[in-house]
Amino acid sequence: MSVYQFTANTLTGEEVSLEKYQGKVLLIVNTASKCGLTPQYEGLEALYKEMEGKGVEILGFPCNQFGNQEPGSSEEIASFCLKNYGVSFPMFEKVDVNGSDAHPLYKYLKSNAKGLLGSETIKWNFTKFLINKDGEVVSRYAPTTPPEKIKADIEKML
Predict the structure, then answer these.
(1) Domains of the chain (ranges, CATH numbers)
(2) Which residues are responsible for catalysis (predicted)?
(3) 128-132-133 Cα angle (round to 5)
(4) Residue 87: phi, psi to the nearest 5?
């Protein structure tokens, strides 16, 4: 099994098979627009701009499960990300990352890269998952891990 078996809808409602990203290194992040960690969009965008031509994709998945910090519609999220951070990496529709309604992709990610003390629960916005070119989960990073600290791990997989 790999991330390529999942689909997700973009902020514009287009269903995308993650198979589209086959052969690329992926950084999958649950995001929020009204969080203390929201400025990480800047670091994610900088990393994306530097690495996208080398076979790296960053995939953003807005989530409103943590302190109601992503209350907006898809249009509002897209506008916020572009206006405030110039986000050009792919952004998807808002999803649940925990609980029975968690997106199947997130169920897969969490079961393959457990958190602190073996927990599968995502604790907060901006938890990051690094995926190798074969679609396998390699690492999970805490919400407070800045994107630039992940760059060396990404480069090792290129």
Answers:
(1) 3-157 (3.40.30.10)
(2) 35
(3) 135
(4) -60, 125
Nearest by Cα to 147 from 31, 4, 32, 27: 27
Q: pLDDT value at position 78?
A: 95
C-alpha to C-alpha distance for 41 and 125, rounded to whole angstroms: 12
Strands (E), 50-136: 56-62, 128-131
Rg (CA), the chain: 14
Distance of alpha carbon 27 from alpha carbon 128, whole angstroms: 7
Instruction: Report the alpha-carbon distance of residue 134 to residue 147 in Å, rounded.
Output: 21
Burial of 34 (0-12, 13-18, 19+ CB in 10 A): middle
Pairwise CA distance, residues 155 & 150, whole Å: 9
Q: How confident is the model at residue 86 (pLDDT cuts 50, 70, 90)?
A: very high
Neighbouring-strand partners of residue 56: 25
pTM over 0.90: yes
What is the C-alpha to C-alpha distance for residues 97 and 99, in angstroms, rounded to an integer? 7
Give the pLDDT confidence of 108-136 residue by residue, as tens digits: 999 998 876 677 899 999 999 999 999 99
Instruction: Return the active site residues.
Output: 35
What's the token pair of residue 11?
């902020």
